[in-house]
Amino acid sequence: MLEALITSKTRLKLLIKFFVSSTNTGYLRGIAEEFNESTNSIRKELNQLSDAGYLVKSQHNNKILYKANETHPLFKSLQKLIHSYLGIDQIIENVLDRAGDVSSVALIGDYAKGLDSGEIEVLILGNDLNTIYLLNLADKTAQLLRKKINLYFEEPVDIVHRIVLYDV
């Protein structure tokens, strides 16, 4: 899908990292380690995305921090494109439709960190949730997206990153 449009795998990873959630930030060496890629390839893509205005840089303790430029005219469109690519928009629509009394839906795990690992972890909280429906929906969505989907109905204790997708 999106790989045909954005042929650089590194660029696609960076777009996912920074546009899945506008709060995600990173610096050159940290991103290179996270993606297991050379600093040169990461630097090249970060510079191109910054020069185009999609990312903003700021100095923080002798490191240059990067984050999505929320004031860029295409920010919302890019974020929606990334969410569609990851299947987040479909998950939310379907979950809220027939899942019961949903109070909160959050993306956790690798995707919350901006990593496209192929495994989507979703935390769904609420009362009288239709867990059978949700698990069936997760299986169907996983086949459609060709990604593994794990649902959590209780908050795991080791959550470090979370992107709230829906909250009452």
Give your account of this protein's structure.
- The chain is 46% helix and 26% strand.
- With 168 residues, the protein is α+β, with helices and mostly antiparallel strands.
- The protein has two domains: 2-76, Orthogonal Bundle (Arc Repressor Mutant, subunit A), CATH 1.10.10.10; 87-167, Beta Polymerase, domain 2 (2-Layer Sandwich).
- Strands 6-5-4-7 form a four-stranded mixed sheet. Strands 1-3-2 form a three-stranded antiparallel sheet.
- Strand 2 and strand 3 form a beta hairpin.
- The model has no long low-confidence stretch (mean pLDDT 84).
Descriptive tags:
single chain; Arc Repressor Mutant, subunit A; Beta Polymerase, domain 2; 2 domains; 8 helices
Summarize the structure.
46% of the residues lie in helices and 26% in strands.
SSE blueprint and pairings:
Blueprint: H1 2-5, H2 9-19, E1 25-27, H3 28-35, H4 39-51, E2 55-60, E3 63-68, H5 75-86, H6 88-98, E4 101-108, H7 110-113, E5 119-127, H8 131-145, E6 148-152, E7 162-167
Parallel strand pairs: 5-6
Antiparallel strand pairs: 1-3, 2-3, 4-5, 4-7
Helix pairs in contact: 3-4, 6-8
Protein name: Transcriptional regulator
Organism: Sphingobacterium hungaricum
InterPro entries: WH_DNA-bd_sf (IPR036390)
Any idea what the CATH superfamily of the largest domain is called?
Answer: Beta Polymerase, domain 2
Compute the number of helices: 8
Radius of gyration: 17 Å
Top CATH class of the largest domain? Alpha Beta
Tally of separate domains: 2
